[in-house]
Design brief:
This protein is an alpha+beta fold. It contains 22 helices and 16 strands. Strand 15 and strand 16 form a beta hairpin. The chain starts with a strand and ends in a 33-residue tail after the last helix.
Length: about 525
């Protein structure tokens, strides 16, 4: 029997190509281990092709190969192509949880002998996290040879029906008409799909916006060079990542985190990965009997996107939190908002006003004000947008200064929270360019003379006057409010302040700026 697979096959999707990479990695690992293979079983590997050859009964050979490729290590899925047995325990558990949480969600795809609880490290000097997972006795990848062969043990020559666990999104369209609406693959292509879990990557989702039932993200890379991708998937940063590194706030965060894992190299040139597909699988109301693709992004590794995401990842980090029942990972809400936009090739701040539409969500955003302030300064974007935010920061500073002066004269504590809520509510009531123009001019005029606004008025006038810009300006104004690092809102402490921040809580009434 001879099987030849080529990355250039026009029938291949990203998942098929990932499967071919997984097969390549599995065969390469068998070479590395100098594994004992059946007589007549051999292969040839190149950057874009895999050739498999064997003699004798096809089913016997395939059964041996699949059992060698898909193993178990103390109840945990062990992929030969990743040499998972030698990986950190964190990475082993994530691969196991990720496959069971995406491709093999349905109980018919595996047999379990119970649930295991372990404590895993979140990092040095951080709390441990209790993790529960199914301990398996077997799973469907190990036993798929019988689906590829006829009753005589010969490799099939006709298409076979493909279940959703093998090719997500390509399952039966209507359960009442399974014969007519099922998806079929050539047996060679179905064989390739078996190895996709080896090349894919998995993240635990902890979103503050998305449906909480979507707990895992599946990352499918776009592979153009089998050898280069194998080096990336086997690099030490991925193999030695700690449990916290496998968390993402959303699909955009997951895709960009995967594409920027090694910040020191150009992933496109070094490993041949230009983009990836990120998806979630779950149950929908009209097909509760099967797992369905519930959401999907295609995330591209452009220089600007990768740089901007790395800025976010540096300043809006996930945190390990010690809870009552053990540690857990709190993902960044601000990074979720920004990464979703970057993944969709939208301006990094796009739609934030519409998504942060309650005081509760605004407080979650403002909780990260220090990191958000740094992101605004360092992210690659139109410099006029940064000037607009700076003008709003100065307006907030002067406004808070006035409140502080009045409160001191009355012997009261200044109520900055009330003013913050007033500004946020005012932005929330802006539903068109006219209402936004009325709000922002009133906001600025109440503050007084704003240095940045006066100096750069010609550059900033279109943010206020042009109808097409009002939503963008509203988003930037809300970001300015959430990232303002002066005294006041949400029990800010002195450790949050950096040199050069726009802070003014010592308003001088005698030298107060005139109203515009």
């Amino acid at each position: 029997m001879n099987l030849e697979f080529d990355l250039g096959n026009p029938c291949f999707t990203l998942l098929h190509r990932a499967g071919l990479a997984g097969l390549w990695m599995t065969l390469k690992q068998l070479e590395k281990e100098k594994a004992e293979v059946p007589s007549g079983f051999n292969w040839q590997l190149s950057k874009r092709k895999v050739n498999l050859n064997w003699n004798g009964n096809d089913r016997d050979t395939l059964e041996w190969f699949l059992k060698e490729s898909f193993q178990l290590n103390d109840g945990i899925i062990a992929l030969r192509g990743l040499d998972t047995k030698s990986m950190r325990e964190d990475a082993q558990v994530i691969v196991h949880q990720g496959i069971l949480g995406t491709l093999l969600q349905h109980t018919s795809t595996h047999k379990s002998d119970g649930v295991v609880t372990k404590s895993l490290s979140l990092g040095e000097n951080e709390p441990e996290i209790p993790v529960k997972y199914k301990s398996l006795k077997s799973y469907t990848y190990q036993e798929f040879a019988e689906n590829l062969c006829d009753k005589n043990g010969q490799f099939l020559t006709h298409p076979i029906s493909v279940a959703g666990w093998l090719n997500p999104g390509a399952a039966v369209r209507h359960i009442a008409f399974s014969a007519d609406t099922s998806f079929e693959e050539n047996p060679e292509n179905a064989f390739i799909l078996l190895f996709a879990p080896v090349a894919c990557y998995y993240y635990i989702l902890r979103s503050k916006l998305r449906d909480k039932r979507a707990q895992y993200a599946l990352v499918i890379p776009e592979i153009t060079d089998l050898e280069k991708y194998a080096k990336y998937r086997q690099n030490q940063q991925l193999r030695n990542a700690i449990y916290k590194d496998f968390h993402a706030s959303g699909l955009g965060d997951a895709g960009l985190r995967f594409l920027t894992r090694d910040a020191t190299v150009n992933i496109t040139q070094t490993f041949g990965i230009q983009r990836c597909q990120v998806l979630t699988l779950g149950t929908v109301a009209w097909a509760t009997q099967q797992k369905t693709r519930t959401d999907m992004y295609v995330v591209e590794a452009t220089a600007e996107n990768c740089h901007n995401y790395q800025v976010c990842n540096a300043w809006l980090q996930d945190k390990a939190i010690a809870g009552k029942e053990g540690g857990f990972v709190a993902t960044s809400f601000a990074k979720e908002l920004i990464a979703e936009n970057l993944a969709k090739n939208l301006p990094w701040y796009s739609g934030i006003s519409e998504k942060v539409n309650s005081n509760e969500l605004f407080q979650k955003l403002a909780y990260e004000r220090g990191g958000l302030y740094q992101v605004i300064q360092k992210i690659q974007s139109d410099e006029r947008e940064k000037l607009f935010v700076k003008a709003c920061h100065e307006a907030i500073s002067y406004t808070f200064g006035k409140i502080s002066t009045i409160a001191k004269k009355r012997g009261e504590t200044p109520n900055f929270d009330r003013e913050t809520i007033r500004i946020r509510s005012g932005l929330g009531r802006c539903k068109n360019s006219d209402s936004f123009r009325e709000f922002i001019t009133d906001f600025w005029s109440r503050a007084g003379k704003i240095p940045t606004l006066q100096k750069h008025w010609e550059e900033l006038i279109e943010f206020v006057m042009l109808e097409k810009n009002w939503k963008k300006s509203r988003d930037l104004a809300l970001l300015a409010l959430a990232s303002y690092k002066g005294t006041g809102s949400f029990e800010r402490d002195k450790d949050d302040f950096d040199e050069g921040d726009p802070v003014d809580d010592t308003f001088d009434e005698e030298n107060a700026p005139d109203i515009l």
